[in-house]
Amino acid sequence: MTSVAVVGTGAVGSMALWRLAERGIPAVGFDAYAPGHDRGAAGGESRIFRTAYKEGPEYVPLLREVRDLWSELERAAGRRLFTPVGGVTVGPREHPKIQAVLAAARAHDLPVETLTGKAAQDRAPEHPLREGEVMVADPGAGYLRPEPAVVAAAAAAERKGARIARYTPVTEVRQDATGVTVVTGDGEQRFTHAVLAPGPWARTLLPEAPIVAKAITSTWFPRRDEALFDPERCPIAIRVGEPAYSCFPSVDGTGVKVNLHVPWREIDSPDALTRSVPVAYVEQVARAVAATLPGLGPDPVRVATYADAFTPDGHGLLGRQGRTVLAAAFSGHGFKLAPVFGDIVADLVESGATTRGIGHLAPNRPLRRSP
């Protein structure tokens, strides 16, 4: 009889546990903390969801499918996890990332609009255009609530019979011809299969994999105008060019989250993550806000740092290797797609294959740094 260990119950691990449980497959989740904790990649209050995807059109079919799974999880949780406020990408008309958004939309016939002037101002007054800039509006975008979503998936899995070993870090996973051995401080347990979803702790279990953990910092700025950045109306935004950042509505009614897009610092382990932020970084974000977001105050009122795992080419690792399924290092693409990645994990455990297009995530692909 199939039995599965899911190592890590963050975004993808909790969703994998839920989708396995939905199929009636016995599964146990292991985590050094508990679902919804703030030490991994699923922190920070909000995550962008978008369908016109500048990172590659191969993601669009998965993004279309995952909306139904998010709705299913919302029904199971009895609460809203996705707010469909739309989204905009702002930047110079000829910028490669603007062109990549438009290319993804053309490839999959997505209903995006390219706006300038008054049309752009009416759509997103929070994000005024500078000379030579355009706004690409994606009506299918919005924002997700990461911490409640992870808790909801874990709870849904437990209601369906899955178990979660909280505060039980896994130190080793060994596989052989008949199954896998999971080693914790409490001893060893045997399963027929294991799912490795360790998030930013990937190097602990996969020391030879080309994965690095990085510290990502979010900042929240106060609103000058209470009519702007409304959590029910303001679109999520990505600005490309200089400066480059992502910006969210005021989810909590006070601060507006701005994530500056800069090279993140590598860290040895999330357990050693320094949560203090250099003044120079705060000043850099403040300059970006002053230059492009006149509706926000000059200084952040909140700063938070969390960890995530990245591959050299910026795409995750998802595939079956013997009796283990690797689901790691999604490099910033993981949360929005976590439910469908979890369902793909269940496919790979159950049959060894999936009908979904995940060739760009194959663990055995040549890994080269993206340009």
From TrEMBL:
Q: Which InterPro entries match?
A: FAD-dep_OxRdtase, FAD/NAD-bd_sf, MTOX
For this UniProt record, the keywords arranged alphabetically read as follows:
FAD, Flavoprotein, Oxidoreductase
**Which positions carry the signal peptide feature in this UniProt record?**
none
Task: Enumerate the cofactors the protein uses.
Answer: FAD
Q: Does the keyword Transmembrane apply?
A: no
Annotated GO molecular function terms are: flavin adenine dinucleotide binding; sarcosine oxidase activity
**Key word Flavoprotein present:** yes
The record's listing under SUPFAM superfamilies reads:
FAD-linked reductases, C-terminal domain, FAD/NAD(P)-binding domain
Which segments constitute the FAD dependent oxidoreductase domain?
Answer: 4-348
Q: Which NCBIfam families match?
A: PRK11259.1
Query: What name does UniProt use for this protein?
Result: Sarcosine oxidase
To which species is this protein native?
Nonomuraea solani
